[in-house]
Fold this protein.
Amino acid sequence: MSDRFPAAQRALKAAGSESRKMRPVTVETAYTAQAAFETMMGVFEASRFLTGHRNANTIEINGSAGSIRFDLKCPNGLEVLNEGDSGYETVLVTDPDDPYSDHWWPAGHNLSWEHALVHWNHEFFSAVADGSSHQPDFEAGLGVQCIIDGVK
């Protein structure tokens, strides 16, 4: 077993050899977590095999003043719902005012996840070249890992 997951290794050792036997997986992968923030609460859920939503990598944030929703299957837009609106409006990243629009196809053409990687690399290497800071940085990544560790 890899040493990349020390907490899992400790749990397996504590459980004894019976837990290390290979068995068929009979449940779908899913989780839920609740979080308390300073001014609100959060509910996180994920499932690898949710019926009708296979590989739907979506993020949705709902609040009293509106909601936003992002779906990796439609990476060109962010759905925005402001308080009082009757439905979501899709804000496209391929609109002419997007900071990367002059590097890609004309407005309305689809971009995909690999374009985002090009953008991230551009931002990172530009920061390295001019000596400025880059976000996300190591501290932000560590913060995310601490949150993930806390959910376990």
